[in-house]
């Protein structure tokens, strides 16, 4: 039973951290670190087939947030690892 709650907490913490990093992407006054970008790309990879993960993340973003996040990823192409940025864009859809 404890393992169930630990897994649920970890999943919720992952969603929260992904939302935080996407929020940094959306905010033009902030620049995500390479570690944050790598974490976000990793979350998208780990949860690629998880419809619930996508639902919670994208519902929180909304259409405007999704556009801003994708735009921010494009603007980072000269300053970050392109493979990581591609994985993020694939995750954002």
Give a description of the structure:
With 93 residues, the protein is mainly α. It has a domain at 34-93. It has helices at 2-26, 34-46, 51-75, 82-92.
The largest sheet, given as strand count, sense and whether it forms a barrel, is:
none
Question: What is the structural class?
Answer: mainly alpha
| Rg on CA atoms, Å | 13 Å
The sequence of SSEs as H and E is HHHH
| Number of helical elements | 4
Fraction of helical residues: over 70%
The stretches of 5 or more residues where confidence is low (pLDDT under 50) are none
Overall shape: globular
> Hey, roughly how much beta strand do the residues contain?
under 5%
Number-wise, the strands total: 0
CA distance, first residue to last residue: 35 Å
Mean pLDDT: 88
Indicate the topology.
Layout: H1 2-26, H2 34-46, H3 51-75, H4 82-92
List the defining traits of the structure above.
93 residues; mainly alpha
Produce a short descriptive summary.
This protein is mainly α and 93 residues long.
């Amino acid at each position: 039973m404890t393992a169930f709650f630990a897994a649920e907490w970890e999943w919720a913490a992952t969603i929260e951290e992904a939302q935080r990093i996407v929020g940094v992407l959306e905010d033009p006054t902030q620049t995500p670190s390479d570690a944050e970008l790598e974490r976000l790309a990793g979350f998208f990879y780990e949860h690629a087939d998880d419809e619930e993960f996508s639902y919670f993340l994208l519902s929180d973003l909304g259409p405007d947030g999704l556009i801003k996040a994708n735009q921010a990823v494009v603007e980072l192409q000269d300053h970050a690892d392109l493979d990581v940025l591609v994985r993020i864009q694939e995750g954002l859809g």
